[in-house]
Write a structure and sequence with these properties.
Belongs to the flavoredoxin family. The protein is an alpha+beta fold and 216 residues long. It is built from six helices and 14 strands. The protein is globular, with a radius of gyration of 20 Å. It starts with 9 loop residues before the first helix and ends with a helix. The structure holds flavin mononucleotide. Flavin mononucleotide binds next to strand 3, strand 5 and helix 2.
Length: 216
Protein backbone atom coordinates (compact mmCIF):
# COMPACT_ATOMS: atom_id res chain seq x y z
CA UNK A 1 0.00 0.00 0.00
CA UNK A 2 1.19 3.49 -0.78
CA UNK A 3 0.24 6.69 0.99
CA UNK A 4 0.27 9.98 -0.87
CA UNK A 5 1.32 12.17 2.03
CA UNK A 6 0.14 15.30 0.21
CA UNK A 7 -3.47 14.09 0.18
CA UNK A 8 -3.78 12.84 3.76
CA UNK A 9 -5.10 14.57 6.89
CA UNK A 10 -2.44 15.66 9.38
CA UNK A 11 -3.36 13.02 11.93
CA UNK A 12 -2.79 10.21 9.38
CA UNK A 13 0.54 11.65 8.28
CA UNK A 14 1.51 11.85 11.95
CA UNK A 15 0.61 8.17 12.45
CA UNK A 16 2.69 7.12 9.44
CA UNK A 17 5.90 8.88 10.44
CA UNK A 18 5.46 8.32 14.16
CA UNK A 19 4.96 4.56 13.79
CA UNK A 20 7.71 3.92 11.26
CA UNK A 21 10.59 6.32 11.87
CA UNK A 22 11.61 4.63 15.09
CA UNK A 23 13.26 4.35 17.48
CA UNK A 24 13.69 8.06 18.09
CA UNK A 25 15.78 9.47 20.92
CA UNK A 26 13.94 11.76 23.31
CA UNK A 27 15.11 15.30 23.96
CA UNK A 28 13.82 16.22 27.43
CA UNK A 29 14.22 19.93 26.86
CA UNK A 30 14.69 22.46 29.61
CA UNK A 31 14.14 26.07 28.63
CA UNK A 32 13.39 29.27 30.47
CA UNK A 33 10.80 31.97 29.82
CA UNK A 34 11.70 35.66 29.74
CA UNK A 35 10.12 35.79 33.24
CA UNK A 36 12.52 33.08 34.45
CA UNK A 37 10.07 30.16 34.69
CA UNK A 38 11.87 26.90 33.91
CA UNK A 39 10.03 24.63 31.51
CA UNK A 40 10.70 20.93 30.88
CA UNK A 41 9.08 18.88 28.09
CA UNK A 42 9.90 15.78 26.03
CA UNK A 43 10.34 15.95 22.25
CA UNK A 44 11.11 12.91 20.09
CA UNK A 45 11.17 14.67 16.74
CA UNK A 46 14.82 15.11 17.59
CA UNK A 47 18.24 14.05 16.45
CA UNK A 48 21.82 15.19 15.89
CA UNK A 49 22.38 16.53 12.39
CA UNK A 50 26.03 17.55 12.38
CA UNK A 51 29.28 17.78 14.30
CA UNK A 52 31.14 20.74 12.78
CA UNK A 53 29.59 22.57 14.51
CA UNK A 54 27.70 20.00 16.59
CA UNK A 55 24.03 20.48 15.71
CA UNK A 56 20.70 19.12 16.90
CA UNK A 57 17.33 19.45 15.17
CA UNK A 58 13.96 19.60 16.94
CA UNK A 59 10.45 19.34 15.50
CA UNK A 60 8.19 21.40 17.72
CA UNK A 61 4.57 20.96 16.65
CA UNK A 62 2.05 23.71 17.35
CA UNK A 63 -0.78 23.24 19.84
CA UNK A 64 -3.45 21.30 17.90
CA UNK A 65 -6.41 23.53 18.88
CA UNK A 66 -4.98 27.04 19.36
CA UNK A 67 -2.27 26.47 16.72
CA UNK A 68 -0.01 28.52 19.00
CA UNK A 69 3.58 27.71 19.92
CA UNK A 70 4.23 25.23 22.70
CA UNK A 71 6.04 26.71 25.71
CA UNK A 72 9.36 25.15 24.68
CA UNK A 73 9.20 26.79 21.24
CA UNK A 74 8.18 30.18 22.70
CA UNK A 75 11.06 30.06 25.17
CA UNK A 76 13.68 29.01 22.61
CA UNK A 77 12.58 31.73 20.20
CA UNK A 78 12.50 34.36 22.96
CA UNK A 79 15.81 33.51 24.66
CA UNK A 80 17.80 31.52 22.07
CA UNK A 81 18.84 28.97 24.70
CA UNK A 82 17.84 25.46 25.76
CA UNK A 83 19.22 22.24 27.19
CA UNK A 84 18.63 18.79 25.65
CA UNK A 85 18.64 16.17 28.41
CA UNK A 86 18.58 12.50 27.36
CA UNK A 87 16.18 10.21 29.20
CA UNK A 88 17.15 7.08 31.16
CA UNK A 89 14.73 4.36 32.25
CA UNK A 90 14.72 5.64 35.83
CA UNK A 91 13.46 9.04 34.64
CA UNK A 92 10.76 7.69 32.29
CA UNK A 93 7.80 8.56 34.50
CA UNK A 94 9.08 12.03 35.36
CA UNK A 95 9.72 12.71 31.67
CA UNK A 96 6.19 11.54 30.81
CA UNK A 97 4.71 13.81 33.51
CA UNK A 98 6.36 16.74 31.73
CA UNK A 99 4.25 16.09 28.61
CA UNK A 100 1.09 17.37 30.31
CA UNK A 101 -0.38 20.52 28.88
CA UNK A 102 0.73 22.72 31.79
CA UNK A 103 0.00 26.47 31.70
CA UNK A 104 3.01 28.64 30.81
CA UNK A 105 3.31 29.90 34.41
CA UNK A 106 3.60 26.37 35.86
CA UNK A 107 7.08 24.88 35.97
CA UNK A 108 7.16 21.15 35.17
CA UNK A 109 10.31 21.03 37.32
CA UNK A 110 8.06 21.39 40.39
CA UNK A 111 5.13 19.53 38.86
CA UNK A 112 7.16 16.38 38.10
CA UNK A 113 9.63 16.72 41.00
CA UNK A 114 12.73 17.04 38.83
CA UNK A 115 16.18 17.61 40.27
CA UNK A 116 18.14 20.24 38.32
CA UNK A 117 21.75 21.41 38.23
CA UNK A 118 23.04 24.74 36.92
CA UNK A 119 24.24 24.96 33.34
CA UNK A 120 27.62 26.50 32.48
CA UNK A 121 26.87 28.61 29.41
CA UNK A 122 23.10 28.98 29.16
CA UNK A 123 20.44 30.14 31.61
CA UNK A 124 18.12 27.09 31.66
CA UNK A 125 19.31 24.48 34.14
CA UNK A 126 20.02 20.88 33.12
CA UNK A 127 18.32 17.82 34.59
CA UNK A 128 20.69 16.38 37.19
CA UNK A 129 19.56 12.76 36.80
CA UNK A 130 20.06 12.68 33.01
CA UNK A 131 23.09 10.63 31.92
CA UNK A 132 23.77 13.23 29.21
CA UNK A 133 22.80 16.90 28.83
CA UNK A 134 23.66 19.28 26.01
CA UNK A 135 23.60 23.03 26.53
CA UNK A 136 22.44 24.52 23.24
CA UNK A 137 22.10 27.85 21.48
CA UNK A 138 19.49 28.38 18.80
CA UNK A 139 21.00 28.71 15.31
CA UNK A 140 17.71 28.86 13.40
CA UNK A 141 13.97 28.52 13.98
CA UNK A 142 11.85 27.96 10.90
CA UNK A 143 8.09 27.74 10.60
CA UNK A 144 7.63 25.23 7.79
CA UNK A 145 3.88 24.95 7.20
CA UNK A 146 1.30 26.22 9.66
CA UNK A 147 1.72 23.57 12.34
CA UNK A 148 5.36 23.24 13.25
CA UNK A 149 8.53 25.04 14.10
CA UNK A 150 11.83 23.38 13.30
CA UNK A 151 14.69 24.47 15.54
CA UNK A 152 18.35 23.90 14.79
CA UNK A 153 20.60 24.29 17.80
CA UNK A 154 24.33 24.24 18.33
CA UNK A 155 25.64 22.19 21.24
CA UNK A 156 27.92 24.44 23.27
CA UNK A 157 28.58 22.22 26.28
CA UNK A 158 28.10 18.48 26.78
CA UNK A 159 27.65 17.01 30.26
CA UNK A 160 28.19 13.26 30.54
CA UNK A 161 27.99 11.68 33.96
CA UNK A 162 31.40 10.40 35.09
CA UNK A 163 30.15 6.85 35.74
CA UNK A 164 29.51 6.41 32.00
CA UNK A 165 33.00 7.39 30.85
CA UNK A 166 35.16 4.31 30.36
CA UNK A 167 38.26 5.98 28.90
CA UNK A 168 38.74 9.72 29.37
CA UNK A 169 41.78 9.95 27.09
CA UNK A 170 40.23 8.19 24.12
CA UNK A 171 36.75 9.52 24.96
CA UNK A 172 34.96 6.18 25.18
CA UNK A 173 31.57 5.83 26.83
CA UNK A 174 29.53 2.95 28.19
CA UNK A 175 26.39 3.86 26.29
CA UNK A 176 24.38 0.71 27.21
CA UNK A 177 24.96 1.51 30.90
CA UNK A 178 23.18 4.86 30.39
CA UNK A 179 19.93 2.89 29.89
CA UNK A 180 18.54 5.52 27.54
CA UNK A 181 15.01 5.12 26.25
CA UNK A 182 13.46 6.17 22.94
CA UNK A 183 10.05 6.47 21.31
CA UNK A 184 8.66 3.83 19.05
CA UNK A 185 5.41 3.03 17.24
CA UNK A 186 2.04 4.37 18.31
CA UNK A 187 0.94 6.24 21.33
CA UNK A 188 2.73 5.59 24.59
CA UNK A 189 5.29 3.04 23.34
CA UNK A 190 8.98 3.23 24.21
CA UNK A 191 12.13 1.20 23.56
CA UNK A 192 15.08 0.43 25.79
CA UNK A 193 18.51 0.94 24.31
CA UNK A 194 19.63 -2.56 25.32
CA UNK A 195 19.52 -4.71 22.18
CA UNK A 196 22.45 -3.63 20.04
CA UNK A 197 24.74 -5.55 17.68
CA UNK A 198 28.04 -4.68 16.06
CA UNK A 199 28.91 -4.59 12.35
CA UNK A 200 32.08 -3.09 10.88
CA UNK A 201 31.67 -0.72 7.95
CA UNK A 202 32.90 -2.53 4.82
CA UNK A 203 35.39 -1.18 2.29
CA UNK A 204 34.47 -0.99 -1.38
CA UNK A 205 35.24 -4.33 -3.06
CA UNK A 206 35.35 -4.06 -6.91
CA UNK A 207 35.34 -7.86 -7.28
CA UNK A 208 31.70 -7.88 -6.10
CA UNK A 209 30.72 -5.94 -9.22
CA UNK A 210 32.79 -8.26 -11.45
CA UNK A 211 30.95 -11.27 -9.95
CA UNK A 212 27.57 -9.62 -10.68
CA UNK A 213 28.50 -9.06 -14.35
CA UNK A 214 29.77 -12.63 -14.72
CA UNK A 215 26.45 -13.96 -13.43
CA UNK A 216 24.46 -12.03 -16.09
C1 LIG B 1 7.91 10.89 24.61
C2 LIG B 1 7.22 12.11 24.08
C3 LIG B 1 7.70 12.71 22.92
C4 LIG B 1 7.10 13.87 22.41
N1 LIG B 1 7.58 14.41 21.26
C5 LIG B 1 7.06 15.54 20.78
C6 LIG B 1 7.59 16.14 19.60
O1 LIG B 1 8.55 15.66 19.00
N2 LIG B 1 7.03 17.30 19.16
C7 LIG B 1 5.99 17.88 19.81
O2 LIG B 1 5.54 18.96 19.38
N3 LIG B 1 5.47 17.34 20.94
C8 LIG B 1 5.97 16.20 21.43
N4 LIG B 1 5.45 15.64 22.58
C9 LIG B 1 4.36 16.32 23.28
C10 LIG B 1 4.90 17.46 24.17
O3 LIG B 1 5.79 16.94 25.14
C11 LIG B 1 3.69 18.13 24.89
O4 LIG B 1 2.89 18.78 23.92
C12 LIG B 1 4.12 19.10 25.97
O5 LIG B 1 2.97 19.50 26.68
C13 LIG B 1 4.82 20.33 25.44
O6 LIG B 1 5.20 21.09 26.54
P1 LIG B 1 5.63 22.61 26.46
O7 LIG B 1 4.41 23.39 26.01
O8 LIG B 1 6.00 22.91 27.90
O9 LIG B 1 6.76 22.72 25.52
C14 LIG B 1 5.99 14.46 23.09
C15 LIG B 1 5.51 13.85 24.27
C16 LIG B 1 6.10 12.68 24.74
C17 LIG B 1 5.57 12.03 26.00
Amino acid sequence: MQFDMRALPMVTRYKIVNSTITPRPIAWITSQSAEGIVNAAPYSFFNCVGTEPPLVALGLLKEPVSRGLKNTASNIIATGEFVVNLVCEADAERMNLCSVDAPADVSEIDYAGIQTAPSELVAPPRIATSPVSFECRKVAAMDIGAMQTVVIGEILMAHIRDEFITDRERVYFDTPAMKLIGRTHGSGWYVRNGDSFQMDRPRYDPSRMAKDRAAE
